[in-house]
Amino acid sequence: MISTTTATIEGKQIIEYKGIVFGEVISGVNFVRDLAAGLTNFFGGRSGSYEDELQRARDQAITEMEQRAMQRGANAVVGVDIDYEILGSGGNMLMVSASGTAVVYAE
């Protein structure tokens, strides 16, 4: 499946629009990650544990969006947008949302 942030697929003709599709992932942040990130914050540098979690959540959201597009009979998603939100009373949950337009392109 092709997923792209552009409104078109270069070299392909979109022949049908199947509607907007979404993929959402809500991920909790645990104590060990918080501790490691806090140490990284104190000593400087990048937080690998948070970056890994962010990448995992983003990949899952995109996969879920693509699966929903396939369920509608699409073979691509155009106009993909990824959004990130912090949720929970302590800001300890991360929501990643992927959205786009499911389409069928001529092969």
Describe it.
Strand 3 (76-87) and strand 4 (93-105) form a beta hairpin. This protein has helices at residues 31-43, 48-71; strands spanning 2-3, 14-28, 76-87, 93-105. It is built from 2 helices and 4 strands; from the N terminus they run E-E-H-H-E-E. It is elongated. A 4-stranded mixed β-sheet has the order 1-3-4-2. It has 107 residues and is an alpha+beta fold.
Secondary-structure map with pairings?
Blueprint: E1 2-3, E2 14-28, H1 31-43, H2 48-71, E3 76-87, E4 93-105
Parallel strand pairs: 1-3
Antiparallel strand pairs: 2-4, 3-4
The dominant shape is: elongated
pLDDT < 50 runs, ≥5 residues: none
Proportion of residues in β-strands: 35-45%
The H-and-E topology, N to C, reads as: EEHHEE
- Please, what is the average pLDDT? 85
| Largest sheet descriptor | 4 strands, mixed
Lateral arrangement of strands in the main beta sheet: 1-3-4-2
Total strands: the figure is 4
Briefly summarize what is shown.
This protein is α+β, with helices and mostly antiparallel strands and 107 residues long. The chain has two helices and four strands.
